[in-house]
From TrEMBL:
Biological-process GO terms, alphabetical: methylation; sterol biosynthetic process
Name of this chain's protein: Obtusifoliol 14-alpha demethylase
Cofactor needs: heme
Membrane topology: Single-pass membrane protein
Domain of life of the native organism: Eukaryota
InterPro entries assigned to the protein according to its UniProt record, in alphabetical order: CYP450_sterol_14alpha_dmase, Cyt_P450, Cyt_P450_CS, Cyt_P450_E_grp-IV, Cyt_P450_sf
EC number: 1.14.14.154
Pathway(s) annotated for this protein in UniProt: Steroid biosynthesis; zymosterol biosynthesis; zymosterol from lanosterol: step 1/6
Species: Triticum aestivum
Subcellular location: Membrane
GO molecular function terms noted in the UniProt entry: heme binding; iron ion binding; methyltransferase activity; oxidoreductase activity; sterol 14-demethylase activity
Keyword Oxidoreductase tagged: yes
Family: Belongs to the cytochrome P450 family.
Keyword field: Heme, Iron, Lipid biosynthesis, Lipid metabolism, Membrane, Metal-binding, Methyltransferase, Monooxygenase, Oxidoreductase, Steroid biosynthesis, Steroid metabolism, Sterol biosynthesis, Sterol metabolism, Transferase
Amino acid sequence: MDMLATRTTWLAIGILFIIVVGTKILRWKSSVHPLSTRPPPPIVNVLGLLPSLFIKGFGVTINDLYTKFGSVFTVSLFGPKITLLVGPEVSTHFFQGLESDIDVRKFMEVTIPIFGQEVFYGVDTATCSEQLNFIVDALKPSKLRSLVDPMSQEVEAYFAKWGQDGIVDLKHELEQVLMFISSRCLLGYEVRDMMLEEVYSLFHDLANGLNFLSFLFPYTTTPRNRRRDKAHIRLKEIFTATIRSRRSSGRVEDDALQRLMNSKYKDGRFTTEAEISGMIMGLVVAGHISSTSTSTWTGACMLSNTKFLIAAMEEQKHIISKYKNQIGYEALSEMDTLHRCIKEAIRMHTSAPVLVRKAHTKFRVHTKEGEEYDIPGGHNILVPTALNNKLAHIYSDPHLYDPDRFGPGREEDKVGGKYSFTTFGGGRHVCPGMALAYLQIKVIWSHLLRNFELKLISSFPKADGSKMNQEPKGKVMISYKRHQLL
Ligand code: HEM
């Protein structure tokens, strides 16, 4: 009996073993095997692309490759590989994949000397992600309402300095007024009132640390990098002094600096002075350049398209009469025409023309052309936002400035599917400053449309290819004459 029981037990264990192993093999066959059978994307050698890159430029070359190979292709750089994913159909893993599978860290070394070792890509992934969450929280749309009054005061005070009529460089004017807004809403009134000129010039030196050369060699001693390092040290001193003074006096303000000071890690510790300083530098650098560029493009586009300029002005008239000229958060939220004019300007002239990641593990994409590719781990992955924003199967007449494409009944970006409009990124690293960017640009343009008659007098600007953010090249001259929109 005992022997029978032992035999039965062994038989049961044997059957169980066969089932477990068999199931594993079947699962492996059905999931792993097919993965290994998909081909990698078509590959082109960078040598063959050099003539086109020199003659036609990066944008046109990528567009030509897209026409030839479809939405996924790889460029080989004598060893390292860059795989391009064009269009929303193949972008999901790029935006949503786990950091352990695909991440941006490798390309962000350039930011370490700019913002400091204590933040973002100078610290481990978990701490970095907590810090990014502090920023998301500090810039939540619900927290922006209280910033409208200070923003409007800065804008009114700035343009009050303009005469009855005149000619100005729009880009310069918008850069200045945005610095006043940033200092008031992000850095705090201490900086705004006492040392804005110095801080403005330091931020200029800091932001100049973001250039093509320092992407490759962030620590090389060049004059630019030396100025960047000096600016970092001085800004850190300024923010540290402000933080200490607020903490010792118990004074609490309503700005991003304060919200970052109040942020706590999951283990209960508060952010340090160096971390707060680094994060605030990150906010200003990330937000200021892109907002200046976007607000200038918005102006250039509206002033060159009478139909939409008139539509935006009509909307202002309606809002003025509805809100008795009190332009607060609700009034700004109702400016849909102006919102679409900004969105369309930024679709055509995105300040982040490419987004990059490093794939650590293999992933599969299904293209709209019906192909399936396995992209090997180790590839660098690039999403060309500027090209995505002009895809003819998503945007009708993509080279036309047509804000109505985002309006009711069309909504081309939504119809195109998730990740059709990635000017602000998407998924895990979507821009936390998007709502703030729209808000400040609307406050400025609402004020300009209500108070000035404007004309673009220089030719429509070209994008500055030497700058990473594709800002308008050179001066953007406009004439203004005061008027009162009624
Ligand atoms: C028109 C203005 C802006 C544009 C076009 C823009 C664009 C972008 C894009 C495309 C990304 C994603 C990058 C990637 O996926 O690799 C991003 C991330 C980011 N942006 Fe913006 N941005 C703008 C304004 C702002 C403002 C005003 C702030 C803050 C004050 C800001 C703070 C950030 C931060 C902190 C990140 C990093 C998020 C993360 O890695 O999780 N941006 N932005």
